[in-house]
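queue> pop job 88
queue> type: inverse folding (structure -> sequence)
queue> payload:
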């Protein structure tokens, strides 16, 4: 398939750049992106790379307007894990109220109600027929998802299923200097919405969050992803600014 993507990336530190350095950084980003892959596919063309900044609330509003102009007519992905959790609780309540159902609902059942395309057969009973049989005709009706909207299944991270191994102790890893562990995928629910409906950019920025055995990508969380693990280190980093050469070294 041919996929067109507008990608907004958040900087975790402020930059101190003059106009010429901004232009040079944008060209550097363009050059590096052309050498990368997106969703496993080859990047054929990049229209532009722009570095946007804002400090005051008025500047953030103006920056959001500019991002909308650059990305329309596009869609933005929202985290709807709350939909999944609420639907799961509803299934549990229904199960307790209906004694004829013996199998207790699982979280996977709630997720499949969002992820699967479901239909149900509505029997067309005859005049003297109380129960359908194998010869009874039926109409197939679409079962709507638990919530309205363009809802899709998505993968949001990993959960550890093993201990953390020392560098070099596991064969065939990518390098011998990084600790490694075995993980399994974590799935959730997302919703695509038109970029024109976006009210706050911070609502849709996906940030990495690591908490013990969980390696997640989440919205509406602090950009200080490891705050619970290294609060003192991160607090120091947040007060720093990057100059041009330091910014280039990050790439």
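queue> result:
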């Amino acid at each position: 398939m041919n996929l067109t993507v507008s990608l907004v990336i958040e900087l975790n530190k402020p930059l101190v750049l003059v106009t010429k350095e901004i232009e040079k950084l944008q060209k550097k980003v363009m050059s590096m992106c052309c050498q990368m892959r997106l969703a496993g596919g080859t990047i054929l063309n990049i229209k532009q790379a722009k570095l946007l900044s804002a400090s005051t609330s008025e500047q953030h509003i103006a920056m959001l307007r500019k991002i909308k102009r650059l990305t329309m007519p596009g869609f933005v992905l929202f985290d709807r894990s709350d939909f999944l959790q609420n639907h799961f609780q509803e299934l549990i309540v229904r199960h307790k109220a209906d004694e004829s159902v013996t199998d207790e609902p699982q979280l996977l059942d709630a997720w499949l109600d969002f992820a699967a395309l479901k239909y149900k057969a509505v029997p067309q009973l005859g005049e003297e027929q109380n129960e359908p049989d194998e010869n009874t005709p039926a109409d197939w009706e679409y079962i709507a998802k638990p919530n309205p909207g363009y809802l899709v299944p998505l993968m949001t991270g990993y959960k550890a299923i093993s201990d953390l191994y020392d560098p070099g102790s596991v064969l065939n890893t990518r390098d011998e200097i990084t600790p490694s562990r075995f993980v399994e995928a974590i799935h959730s629910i997302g919703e695509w919405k038109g970029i024109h409906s976006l009210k706050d950019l911070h609502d849709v920025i996906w940030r990495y969050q690591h908490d013990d055995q969980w390696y997640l990508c989440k919205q509406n969380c602090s950009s200080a992803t490891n705050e619970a693990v290294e609060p003192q280190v991160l607090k120091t980093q947040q007060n720093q600014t990057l100059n041009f050469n330091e910014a280039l070294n990050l790439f």
